[in-house]
Amino acid sequence: MASATFTNLNSLSSQWIGQPSSFSSRPGSSIRLAARRVSVPIRASYTDELIQTAKSIASPGRGILAIDESNATCGKRLASIGLDNTETNRQAYRQLLLTTPGLGEYISGAILFEETLYQSTIDGKKFVDCLREENIVPGIKVDKGLVPLPGSNNESWCQGLDGLASRSAEYYKQGARFAKWRTVVSIPSGPSALAVKEAAWGLARYASISQDNGLVPIVEPEILLDGDHPIERTLEVAEKVWAEVFFYLAENNVVFEGILLKPSMVTPGAEHKERASPETIAKYTLTMLKRRVPPAVPGIMFLSGGQSEVEATLNLNAMNQSPNPWHVSFSYARALQNSVLKTWQGQPENVEAAQKALLVRAKANSLAQLGRYSAEGENEEAKKGMFVKGYTY
C-alpha cells in the first residue's frame, strides 16, 4: 500500500482538497504536475470500445442488475429461503435471473461473480451468451473483498490489485466488458483520512488496470448507511471522498468517458431519528454529484445500500425529475432480487412467477430512470427496508 509515489500523491491530494491554492504557493509545483499529466499518453487500443460500452450501459430507461455476490453472500440469500449453499443451487438461481425473457428492455448490464461468468445453463448455454441475446453487457466483480486497514479507526481497505491485469485479460476473453470494484467508507469510524485515501487510490489503480484490459470500470466507494448522523454529514463525507477519487483517477490517466460510477445516495444514517423524503435525498445527492463529478462521465448507477425496493426506486425517480449532465440510473442487487427470491422459494414450478417479479422491479426502476415512476399499487413486502447494521458481502 505504501510507496514513495503514493506518499507524494497523498500529499498533493490533501492540499488539493483542503487548500486549492496551495499548488501555486510552491514555485513550479503546478507546472511539474501539469507536465507529468500531459506527458503520459492515454491508452489507445481500447479507448473507443470503452466509451461505446459505457454509453451502451448508460442507455435510456435501463440500468444494471448486480448479481455479483460472493459464494458466501449468495449462500445467505439462499438460506433465507431454506436452500443449501451449493453450486447447483447458486447456478439455478442465477439461471432464473439471467434467462428472464425480455429483461434487456430494462437492464443494460449484469455484474457477475467469477463463478457465474464461467457457468452455463443446465442446457449448456453460456450465461454470457444469454445476456448478449438480450442486449445486456456482461460485467464482472474483480475485487477480492474487504480486510482490516492497519493504522485506521477500525476501518477496511479493498484487496485485489495483485494479479488484476492478468485476471482482467482473461475475463475479457470470456466475454466480460465491464468490471466492478467495491470499497467502503464508514462515517461512524470518522472516516479517517487514511481510509479515504486508500479507498480512492485503490479505485484509481483498479480503474486504470481495467481500462488497459478492455473493461469499463465501475468506480464504487460505498459510503455505508450505518450511523445516526444527519444528511448534512453524509454530504460532507461524500464530497470529500469523491474529490479524492477523481484526483487519483486523473493521476492514473483514467479516461472519464469510459467509466461508470456506483455511488451511495446521500441520505441520513440509517439510525438517524428523522427520515428524509425522496425529494430531499435527490436534492442532496444531485448537489454532491454536480460539485464533484465531471460531465464527461456517462453514467451514475446508484447502489441501493439496504434501502427497501420501493424506497430505492422512489429516490431514483426523484433524481430524474429534471435533466442531469449524466445518465442517472441504478445498479441494484437486493432492491431487484428480494421479491424474486421470496417468490421463487427454490421451487422449479415458481421460476416463471419469480422471473415476472424481477421484470416488475426492473420495469419500476426503468420508469424511475425516466422520471415516470409511481409507487401506486406496490405491495407491502416491497416497502420493507433491508438495511443490516454492519452488513458484509
TrEMBL record:
GO MF terms held by the record: fructose-bisphosphate aldolase activity
Pathway: Carbohydrate degradation; glycolysis; D-glyceraldehyde 3-phosphate and glycerone phosphate from D-glucose: step 4/4
GO terms under cellular component: chloroplast
Enzyme Commission code: 4.1.2.13
Catalytic activity annotation: beta-D-fructose 1,6-bisphosphate = D-glyceraldehyde 3-phosphate + dihydroxyacetone phosphate
Keywords from the UniProt entry: Chloroplast, Glycolysis, Lyase, Plastid, Schiff base
Record GO biological process: glycolytic process
CDD domains according to UniProt: FBP_aldolase_I_a (cd00948)
Protein family according to the UniProt entry: Belongs to the class I fructose-bisphosphate aldolase family.
Record PANTHER family: FRUCTOSE-BISPHOSPHATE ALDOLASE
Protein name, entry field: Fructose-bisphosphate aldolase
